[in-house]
């Protein structure tokens, strides 16, 4: 039997939902690792909708669960139905939807609030000592929910212009957590909390390097599961 992994999405598209390449890479690596995957998303309205061609706000409303179903090929459930007892691990890909729909980091930074079902999901897996995988901006969820944990969003300085969002590391530190600097093809394992993180698109890097980094995160999650 493969490990049972829940994948939590935040919509569809980097600017207002889940980052599609990160979600796909996670699913590929989970498939390669023999995992049994079920996909979830909160049944809520998106904070905003972005025209990805123009990079501008669009005057329309969309639902996070409905949009996430595009990535899940329709096979998806409401996050409110996720039971940690039925899974060995949970993974959150990144994308601005994490910072807009799963929490309010995009607006409030370290003072953000976390969606109730996202919070309860994280708490349930943590309490059960089951691993939590997070990539790109999603490690801020752990930083907000689990003070004192260790995560990475890449580097804490904009090294060679590759880490334009390096200030996120400082905000994580201000929350009382420890930020661990890692390269894009690496992940960090907080063994005490069973939290595995990798920076993915927080780094400007070739897609294959981001894919490989997500692979290390998935492998470590499956090892801990």
TrEMBL record:
NCBIfam families: PRK11780.1. This is GAL3A protein. It comes from the Eukaryota. It comes from Zapornia atra. PANTHER family: ES1 PROTEIN HOMOLOG, MITOCHONDRIAL (PTHR10224), GLUTAMINE AMIDOTRANSFERASE LIKE CLASS 1 DOMAIN CONTAINING 3A-LIKE1-RELATED (PTHR10224:SF5). The gene is Gatd3a_2.
């Amino acid at each position: 039997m493969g490990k049972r992994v829940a994948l939590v999405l935040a919509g569809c598209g980097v600017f207002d939902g889940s980052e599609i390449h990160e979600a796909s890479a996670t699913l590929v690596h989970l498939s390669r690792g023999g995992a049994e995957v079920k996909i979830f998303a909160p049944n809520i309205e998106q904070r905003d909708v972005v025209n990805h061609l123009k990079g501008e706000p669009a005057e329309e409303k969309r639902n996070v669960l409905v949009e996430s179903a595009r990535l899940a090929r329709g096979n998806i459930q409401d996050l409110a139905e996720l039971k940690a007892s039925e899974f060995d691990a949970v993974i959150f890909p990144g994308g601005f939807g994490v910072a807009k729909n799963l929490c309010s980091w995009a607006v409030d930074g370290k003072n953000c609030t976390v969606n109730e079902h996202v919070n309860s999901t994280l708490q349930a897996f943590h309490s059960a000592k089951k691993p939590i995988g997070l990539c790109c901006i999603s490690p801020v969820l752990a930083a907000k929910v689990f003070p004192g944990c260790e995560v990475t969003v890449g580097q804490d300085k904009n090294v060679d212009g590759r880490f334009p969002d390096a200030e996120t590391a400082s905000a994580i530190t201000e929350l009382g957590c420890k930020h661990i600097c890692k390269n894009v093809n690496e992940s960090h394992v907080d063994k005490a909390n069973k939290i595995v993180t990798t920076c993915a698109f927080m780094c400007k890097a070739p897609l294959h390097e981001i894919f490989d980094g997500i692979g290390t995160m998935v492998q470590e999650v499956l090892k801990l599961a």
